[in-house]
Every structure is written in C-alpha cells, then in structure tokens.
Design brief:
The structure is a homodimer. Chain A has about 280 residues and is an alpha+beta fold. Helices cover about 20% and strands about 25% of the residues of chain A.
C-alpha cells in the first residue's frame, strides 16, 4: 500500500483495511477524523482497566467501550468491526508481545472487551493547522517518549509510571500551544509539564524510553504531554493472560470529527457478574 | 434565611443571594442545576492554577474560567456577577484563612481571575435519584474527607495530596454507582478507589481530615471519590498573596443543567504577558 495515498474519511480507510489494501501507519490519513488507541482485554480485567482509564484521563482518554463480545463500536462509526478494521494488531500473552497480525477474527471470543482511547494525532494536527510545527513530524521521526517520575493512580491490577511525549516550543508560544490542546481533552489535552526535564524525573532528553530523540534548540523549552503508551506500560506490568492492541501508529480511524466532544463513557455494570 | 425554602433555579437563588436574602449552604437548592466550587486568584498565579486543574481533572474539574478582572461568567449564567453571587466567601492571605464575607466588591481588582470547578452535589443527587442513598446526607452530616496517599500532578507552585471523600455502598451496588457517576466527569465523576482504606494511605476511617466520620456497615465497602478540597489544600501549601474561595457548602449555583456536558475550557493566553 502506498503511504502517499490520501484517504479522506475514516469509513474509506477502514474499507481499505478490511479488504487487505491498507496495512500502514495511519498518521495523516482521514485528517479530520478522530483516531484511537485500541486495547482489547478479557472481561475479567475490564473493570480494573475501566477504572484505570477513568482515574487517569490525561494518558487514557476513553472515547469508546464495548460490551463483552461486541465487535462493533457504534459511537465511533456505523460499520466498525474491531476484529478487522485496525491496520495492524499486537498480541500480548501474560504481558509479553507475541506477534503482530492484520486481523483478529480467529482470536475473537465472547468475553473480549474493546477500549478505544484518544491519541495525540488529534492535537498535533490542530497545532500544525494553527501554525505551530511539530518537530518529530517535520523531521520524519517518531515522537520521543519517556517513563517519567509521575505515577498514575493505581486501579486494581493496573499501575505504573506516566509515560510522556516531548515536543519543543519557544517559551512565548507555550500559552497558545496550551490553549489549542485544551480543545482536545479526549486526545491527551494540555501539556502536563514544561521546563527542566529533571523536575519530572527525566535524566536525558536524548535517551527516550521509546521513539526517537529530537533536537531542542537553545531558545526552546521541552514541553511534555501525557502519552497513550502509559496504559501499555501498565498492561506489561499487570500481565493479563491476553491483551490485543493496535501496533504503534496503526490506529483505529473513526467517523467522529476531531473537533467533536466525546460524551461520557459508562459500562462497569457489563463487566461484573450479577449478584 | 429559611433553610427549608425551595428555590427552583440558579438564577432565582443568585437573585436572593445578591439582595442579601440568602446566605446559607446551597445543597438541595435549584437541584437540577450545576453548582460549583469557586477559586479566585491574582493573575500571576492563574497560569499555574489552570495547569493544576487541567493536570488533575478528577479533583479539579474546570467548568468555567474568567479573563482577568472579568466578574461575569456567561457560560454558567447570563447575569452572574462573581463579586456578589456566592452566599459566603472565604478570604485567604498567604494561604491563611483571614475572614468570611458575603460580598467581595471591595476586594475586587482588574487582575483577579475566577475558576469554577464542578462539585459532588451533582453526582450525589444523581445517586439519590437512582435509588442509592448517600449516608452522610441521610445522617445530616458533612461528608468525611481524607488527605490520601495519592499525590496530585505538581503544576508550577501547586501540589499536594489528593483529598478524597468517602461514601459506603454494598459491593454489589458499586458497578451501578460507578456508572451513574461516569455521566458527570465535570463533577468528580467515578470513584477513584474502593476497598481497604490503608491501600490509599488512610489509617482510620473514623478520623477524617475534614467533615464528619460516617458509619460503614459490615456488608458495605468504603468508596472514595476525588474531592474539591484538593485544590484548597494545594492553595494552602502554595500560599499565594491573595485567594478568595466560596465557604464550604456555600457554592455558586449556575443556570447549567446538571446533565449537560461542559465544553473544554481554554484561557492560558489571558494570563501571560505578550512577549
């Protein structure tokens, strides 16, 4: 599949994915539509993970949640089938990555629950649209990510450090950058910190835990956002027997306009046996 | 003023407050309308406090933010004047409570910024409406509040422990309670923890840091929510030269229906000098 192809809508992109004609990263595709991180867990872990997302909305902004066994996500698009519509999936057993696949129909079962979390593409596109370039995109790099010294709020079996991304900006631009991102609380929202990385337990900006190091100029300040890798780090620690996620950059592309608000998500009662 | 009087709308209540005819606690008044915690700070502290709210949306759900010197809050009601419309205010100098007053016109200045944060009345009324009684309301007590072992995300000069409230429920009721509260992310939303209080650093449920101890029956589990006293505790530590808040229980009553979603709040650019 040609990376330069320009797909306009989430629905178009998912059709191509489902028919095997698109298996690339989704950055820049269907740019007006919300893209999401995907986490699929067996029902017995769903109540703890729902609590983890609700307790830590900056790194884990929940935009949709399925009932057990339900493969559609009607809030995000009319014909979504989560078993086929993500360009690439990762399969974890006991917290360890086992393989990457392009379809999960054979793994599907009635007790699987799908969580979709907003992702940074949404605010990055808004920053660019407003004239604030994003360094790692300019440089065709991956965003640098760091396990920082801030802890998430523990929720059942899920806990661990807040993972943050870094994008450098001039100090005078930070208020405008902050206000642009404030429009997207469902996509990590405002930066959590800017200034001396050591203040949030980051020793060396040139040695990210994930992604690529990016250049920070002398007149720039490193600005840090909560990152959707945070739940992945918590899952690796919790070691559920099975977990399926999207592969990095290969997101679920939805039919929801990026600027639309996301209604509150409920569903705890679907994960607990009636007593 | 008679506590038993039933005022239907936020606008009606604020008229009574403004004319000096109502200076009581606002619980149960204008029950369909959002009530808010009020924090007023000089502009030089506003950027740090905005960051604190955005970083800690569970204890500090921002529902409105003014420009410096602006005493209206058009998003929350057509004719709100924050200098007159709160039944009782608290004045802090250098983090120390100095006095309680019923009007702040004489203290007002062009550099004051008003923050309004959602409050627990909203989800408590929803719980009661759905048949889940709230123990401290049943017992005509104040909700018990605890400084717990979870830390907020430090933001400029503001930091400190998460303050939580406790309401006991039967274990089998917790999923329904969780889902009801999930509808109100602008009012602390879902509980952050339930189970053994020691797991979040609370030694003795019968010795709350604020409010009254309440009875937990043998077949009940203590359930904890993030609390709007969290920012007050952070303000006491940060010691800004001036801070004005509502007095506990004496909230700003708005014209916004409790079930309505709150659009994202921006405003950082109003607090930083142009460079």
């Amino acid at each position: 599949m040609n990376m330069t192809m320009n797909i306009k809508t989430g629905s178009d992109l998912r059709s191509l994915v489902r028919s095997g004609k698109f298996n690339d990263q989704t950055a820049g595709q269907a740019p007006d539509f919300l893209q999401g991180n995907v986490v699929i867990l067996p029902k017995e872990f769903a109540s703890d993970f729902l609590q983890f997302c609700q307790n830590n909305p900056k790194p884990c902004p929940l935009i949709a949640l399925s009932k057990p066994g339900e493969s559609s996500l009607p809030e995000l698009g009319e014909n979504i089938d989560i078993r086929h519509d993500v360009p690439r999936y990762r399969i974890y057993h006991d917290g360890v990555l086992q393989e990457e696949v392009s379809d999960i129909e054979t793994l599907w079962s009635d007790d699987l629950v799908t969580f979709v979390l907003g992702c940074s593409f949404t605010f990055e596109e808004a920053l660019i649209r407003n004239g604030f370039s994003v360094r790692h995109i300019e440089n065709k790099q991956n965003v640098p990510m760091f396990k920082c010294g801030i802890q998430t709020i523990k929720s059942g079996i899920f806990n661990g450090p807040l993972v943050v991304t870094m994008r450098p900006y001039k100090a005078s631009d930070i208020p405008a950058v902050f206000d642009i991102c404030a429009h997207y609380p469902h996509a990590h929202g405002t930066p959590v910190f800017w200034g001396n990385p050591a203040d949030i337990g980051i020793d060396d900006l040139q040695k990210p835990d994930y992604g690529d190091p990016v250049f920070v100029a002398e007149d720039e300040v490193p600005v840090f956002w909560a990152c959707g890798v945070t739940p992945q780090a918590a899952i690796e620690r919790a070691k559920p027997r099975l977990c399926i996620t999207h592969a990095p950059g290969h997101m679920l592309v939805t039919d929801v306009h990026s600027s639309k608000g996301i209604p509150p998500i409920t569903g705890m009662q679907n994960f607990v046996e009636n007593t």
